[in-house]
Specification:
By secondary structure, the chain is an alpha/beta fold. About 40% of the residues lie in helices and about 20% in strands. The strands form 3 sheets. It has a 7-stranded mixed beta sheet with strand order 6-3-1-7-8-12-11. It starts with a helix and ends with a helix.
Amino acid sequence: MKKIVIILVLLLLVSCSSPVEETAEEVVEDNIDEVVEIIESNVEVNEMGKKVVMIVASDQFRDEELLEPMDVLENAGVEVVVASKDTDMATGMLGAIVSVNLDYSEIIVDDYDALVFIGGTGANMFFNDEKAWSLANEAYSKNKLVGAICIAPSILANAGLLEGKKATSYPSEESNLANNGAQYTGERVTVDENIITGSGPEAAREFGEGILRLI
């Protein structure tokens, strides 16, 4: 729908700068086929009706790991909700500031197709967080897609979700994943059943594309 608004604004600007003899109506008529085509395309995509919640640290989440998957998903018509703990705004390691839509304690797993933990050094605030563990386990048991990238797969490992599963993460978490029964792959993105893990910021877009395919 963002594309529609942008195009309509551009049409209005064109009409305002056109010669007097060319009316706004004529400008719109010249471009109406293109506008209708884009509207129909967006309506078709938005009929996916998919919804993903991404959980970030209140401070020091990794910017790309949130923003790139969000871009992939939103461009495909997926609704992305950002959750965190005890904050209305979250700050990334590289300076991004994002609005937090709800506290992670308010997440209703049934409302989402995927629950994803974003990495960055601040993600360790959820490593031993029982609420985070509970959300991950509930989502997994309900066959929702459960995701984590960078150091965040340690949240899933500590929650007991990765035992016997193939998974990847930032290299610093390899031993923790292995100690919790995971088969560490070292891949950029690894999928095992309804769990997707990513290695870090360099794999952020690929991680987002994987989420899109799996929901």
